[in-house]
Backbone:
């Protein structure tokens, strides 16, 4: 079906239908209690509108690392190959209770999580040490710069982690601010004129899920040839970290991606339907094209975060599936344990490689396997619930356990140690 050639009547019906679906899918969400995991993702940022907030309370300086490891990281060493080491001396890197910028969906200790081991694991590559994270060095590196995380709620999780990793080293609260502006959330370190932001764009290209608060998660439409609305926000950034994974997974066997071509304005809108993974390729293709044509390779460094594993299927590590990640307090110790899907990341790499002849290098933060071990790292029930729980849910905590996002301090701190290492040394 091509809109351009179809008779006007058909074309306008199609246009009408597309418009209807986009509208309906936004509205239906409000009434859609849906499957809990999805609702969680959809509403996990229930904070509202534009809000400029200057933190007022005094914060204490971060807990400092005490280990005296040298930065041997400049060598070629594969950071993805390693193991979790219990280290209650140098971890956590900050206090979740004291971080004034933490979000309620990942502030597990604030929401009742009592076990603390999950905060004490350090990732130890086999062949070297990760560079020691130094917030001041990072802020210096970011002086007069803008770093933007672009993606979904897992990427926002990583953004919150990075903000907590640096904010404690700015004890004067007048020198750090938080600004919520629709899809864009900014942290600013004023003395450094450094900006660390998160921009909501879960499917990379424009889609019916672009509203960070109201979006239906199980009926998705992407726009194959539209990315400019998003790109205009991050085009001038100095460092961009993309992610996109969660929203391309099939949540049921029949789930397909709707892909819209053309536009209402031009009257050539048409809608296709395809496998989720094929939709991912369309988004990657558009993003790659855009980067190739627009990015200033002398200015902007680009990263793509590997897929973040979930832990809903407890039988994979010898538990009961019905418990999901409930009550897990220790990592999986089996060396080489892998359950995550690496295929999307490989797909993404194959697109980004095509940019190399133009001198644009997209670096992959390969955090998938290390995160795969951490069945203990998720909020499960210890997070803010934006939708009041039903009696049935309260009676069965696994039914609403969040085994997708990560408690902070926790696993995403290591993703940021990777990012730090790349920014400083690679
Ligand atoms: C790092 O190790 C992982 C796991 O063994 C491997 O898949 C990956 O290709 C390695 N990366 C590099 C750059 O050698
Ligand atoms: C740290 O862990 C060690 C070994 O598990 C334990 O003996 C020690 O008491 C812990 N220290 C603190 C401060 O929790
Ligand atoms: C919010 O974003 C819009 C455009 O995206 C911009 O015009 C406006 O100045 C921003 N507001 C604040 C408070 O930053
Ligand atoms: C980027 O840097 C190279 C080498 O330093 C230089 O030749 C080129 O003109 C620069 N490109 C832009 C767009 O500034
Ligand atoms: C999880 O822990 C709670 C509190 O200790 C306990 O009541 C519950 O039975 C546990 N659930 C599972 C599935 O282990
Ligand atoms: C990432 O690492 C995993 C193992 O840790 C490996 O299987 C995979 O190929 C790597 N992917 C990329 C894109 O480097």
Residues:
């Amino acid at each position: 079906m091509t809109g351009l050639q179809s008779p006007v009547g058909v074309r306008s019906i199609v246009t009408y239908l597309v418009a209807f679906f986009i509208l309906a899918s936004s509205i239906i969400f409000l009434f859609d209690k849906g499957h809990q995991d999805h609702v969680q993702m959809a509403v996990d940022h229930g904070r509202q509108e534009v809000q400029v907030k200057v933190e007022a309370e005094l914060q204490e300086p971060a807990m400092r690392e005490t280990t005296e490891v040298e930065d041997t990281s400049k060598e070629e060493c594969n950071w993805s190959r390693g193991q979790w080491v219990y280290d209650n001396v140098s971890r956590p890197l900050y206090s979740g209770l004291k971080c004034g910028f933490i979000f309620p969906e990942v502030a597990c200790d604030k929401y009742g999580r009592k076990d603390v081991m999950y905060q004490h694991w350090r990732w130890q590559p086999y062949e070297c040490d990760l560079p020691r994270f130094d917030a001041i060095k990072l802020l210096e590196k970011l002086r007069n710069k803008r770093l933007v995380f672009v993606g979904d709620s897992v990427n926002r999780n990583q953004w919150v982690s990075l903000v907590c990793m640096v904010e404690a080293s700015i004890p004067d609260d007048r020198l750090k601010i938080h600004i919520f502006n629709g899809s864009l959330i900014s942290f600013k370190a004023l003395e450094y004129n450094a900006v660390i932001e998160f921009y909501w764009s879960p499917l990379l290209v424009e889609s019916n899920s672009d509203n960070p608060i109201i979006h239906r998660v199980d009926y998705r439409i992407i726009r194959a040839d539209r990315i400019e609305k998003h790109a205009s926000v991050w085009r001038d950034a100095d460092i961009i970290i993309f992610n996109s994974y969660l929203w391309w997974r099939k949540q049921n066997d029949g789930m397909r991606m709707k892909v819209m071509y053309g536009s209402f304005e031009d009257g050539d809108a048409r809608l296709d339907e395809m496998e989720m993974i094929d939709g991912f390729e369309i988004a990657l293709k558009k993003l790659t094209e855009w980067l190739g044509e627009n990015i200033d390779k002398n200015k902007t460094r680009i990263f793509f975060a590997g897929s973040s594993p979930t832990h809903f299927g407890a039988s994979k590590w010898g538990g009961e599936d019905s418990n999901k990640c409930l009550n897990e307090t220790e990592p999986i110790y089996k060396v080489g344990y892998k359950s995550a899907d690496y295929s999307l990341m490989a797909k993404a790499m194959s697109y980004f490689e095509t940019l190399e002849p133009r001198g644009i290098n997209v670096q992959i933060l390969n955090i998938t396997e290390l995160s795969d071990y951490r069945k203990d790292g998720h909020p499960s029930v210890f997070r803010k619930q934006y939708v009041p729980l039903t009696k049935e849910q309260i009676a069965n905590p696994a039914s609403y356990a969040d085994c997708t996002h990560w408690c902070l301090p926790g696993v995403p701190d290591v993703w940021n140690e990777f990012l730090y290492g790349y920014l400083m040394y690679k």
